[in-house]
Specification:
Length: about 250
């Protein structure tokens, strides 16, 4: 575990293991220096602190992560309260992910719009039965009371909206003229989110490694006394994200 995190940190921080030139990235995309840890992968001592991945899983630890995923302008994260989904969520007929994907494919934006399902349990959907929350970045908002029938409204009001140039100072004011029907719009309650791919039906390795990563992040966050929940950070399981990454950090 620490070996993987150390490899990622070494690559991003320009260590000797970097093998090829990459595009310049913003400072907030680089891991803080204080998270770079000593590699304990070859330690022979018994250790209960870090669970190893099963030996039968094979990983590419040489290819660079940076730039392996196509950049995107907006990210919609659908709260399904599940950890696994149909192999291709964009083809899972009747779901919000599939409905939105079809609309975006037919009428794309100038930027890439990325859709994932997540394990997040809806907390802002209280007046519509079986409704979901949709967390939208970089707008940094949560839309509540969303069902698959609201796909057109989500597309018209939120997907087509120009990308924000800065934080929304007043969320209610920003959407007061929109026809939201029963939808509610709220500020994103999390300071940061850690997204781990657990999409087993898409890649078996993700279904196996996600629980291990989840426990590891939980332990580390507790050790660092990082607040878990609203006003702090949250760890979520998500559907396939593409690229070579096994996780995405969103702040």
């Amino acid at each position: 575990m620490s070996s993987i995190l150390n490899t990622i940190s070494t690559y991003f921080s320009g260590g000797e293991t970097k093998k090829e030139e990459t595009v310049e990235v913003e400072t907030d995309q680089l891991p803080p220096e204080d998270v770079v840890i000593q590699d304990c992968n070859n330690c022979s001592a018994d250790c209960d602190d870090h669970q190893n991945y099963p030996s039968y899983l094979q990983f590419d630890t040489e290819s660079p992560l940076l730039g392996s995923m196509s950049p995107y302008g907006r990210h919609l994260m659908i709260s399904t309260a599940q950890c696994d989904w149909a192999e291709r969520i964009e083809e899972d007929e009747g779901t919000l992910a599939a409905e939105l994907s079809a609309m975006i494919k037919a009428n794309p934006m100038p930027w890439r719009t990325f859709i994932t399902n997540t394990s997040h349990i809806p907390t802002h959907s209280t007046t519509v039965q079986c409704a979901m929350d949709v967390i939208i970045l970089p707008d940094n908002i949560v839309v509540g009371n969303v069902t698959a029938d609201d796909a057109q409204t989500i597309y018209d009001v939120f997907v087509k909206r120009p990308l924000p140039e800065g934080p929304l100072e007043d969320v209610k004011e920003a959407f007061k003229s929109a026809d939201l029907k029963e939808l509610g719009v709220y500020p994103n309650p999390y300071e940061s989110m850690i997204l781990i791919c657990s999409h087993r039906k898409r890649d078996k390795r993700c279904g196996i490694t996600a629980p291990i990563l989840n426990r590891e992040f939980d332990h580390v966050l507790r050790d660092l006394d990082v607040h878990d929940g609203e006003g702090g950070t949250t760890v979520l399981m998500v559907s396939h994200v593409g690229g070579k990454c096994v996780m995405t950090l969103v702040t």
